[in-house]
Every structure is written in C-alpha cells, then in structure tokens.
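Late entry, evening session. Most of the bench is empty. Finally got around to the prediction I had been postponing all week. Sequence below, unchanged from the version circulated by S.P.
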Amino acid sequence: MTTAPSLPAGAGAAPDAAGHATDEALLARVLRVYRPDCRYLRTAVVEETEDGLARARCTFSIPAPFYIHDTGHFNAVEFNLCYNQMMYYAVAKAVKEGIMPPFAEWSLEDYWQRQLPAFLIVDFRSTFAKAMGSHRFHGEITFTRARRYTGGRDRRPMIVADTACRYWDDDGGHCHGEVRLVVTDPPAPAGGAAP
C-alpha cells in the first residue's frame, strides 16, 4: 500500500482560527488512489456551511507537472486534478463527521467503495483570471447543492451535487470554476426510502 507523501512537521496539524485542523490520516487514505508524485493536496479544513452543506479550505503544492516540462504556472489539467482531490477529501470528511445530506448517512466504507467508480464530473467550467504559480497555492471548494434522486423505472438512484471552487496564490494569481458531480450507486438511505 502506498501512502501519501509526508507533510512538513505540523503542516496539517495547526488548527485554523475556528479550531479546525486537517485530518491527516483521512487525507492520506483519500490520496492513496493517486500516484505519489500527483498528490498535490497538502492541508484541508472542512466546515459545515450555514445551509448544511460543506466547504473545504485547502493548500496545495505541485513541485513539477507529471506530463510536461514545468511551465511555472497553474493550468487546466492541474485545476481538475486539484479539484478532484479537495472534493474527494471534503466528501470523505463530511461522511466521517455526519454533515451534508445526503452524504451524512453514508459510512466511510460506503465512501471508500465509491470514491473512484461512482463520482463523475458531468459539467466543468473554469475561468483563469490572472496567472498563478503552482508550487504553493490555496484552494477552496463549496458545495452549493447536494440532492439524492430516486431511481424511476428506467433510472437508478443518484446524487447530484453542484460545487463552486477557486484557487489563488500569494502573488495575486487566481482562477475559479463551477463543477457538477453525479454520484452513481449511492447507498440506500436509512429506512430504505429516499429523503
């Protein structure tokens, strides 16, 4: 089993102003599906939003691209990879903490079984406002909607989640996007009926 690269001492342990800190064991488990040189998410703090969903504030580091010579700037491929990593962690943490219906009813085992095969991006939009560096930067994902749909005669149940995300560096570079996810084959909710 491959583990995530080690973080600098205390990198994930320091709490934010509200007392939240990265769950380092969970982060390592989430990232183990990636090649070691493609594990860009370094820290992530998840909080419940006012509307009962989830937001994650993250830090990233991309020492060098895995597919091209180093361009020195953050690009669309890296946008997508970093989005996936913070989304996977945010959902895993929401499952663990019992927040953000319909994920709140899942077990972590439900999540691990579905992390790769069931989470699908069905709409992806990104806007690059000002070039930003990729060696160290920040990101945020906010779930703006998450809803379970029951399967009809011709459809299986699914979860549809809308998210907004943004990235920025310490020199004013920034970009943002909106992503819609579909989660296929969600576990049956407690009691067997859809919420």
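Two things to note before I forget:
The two ends are 37 Å apart (CA to CA).
The first helix runs from residue 24 to 31.
Will write this up properly tomorrow.
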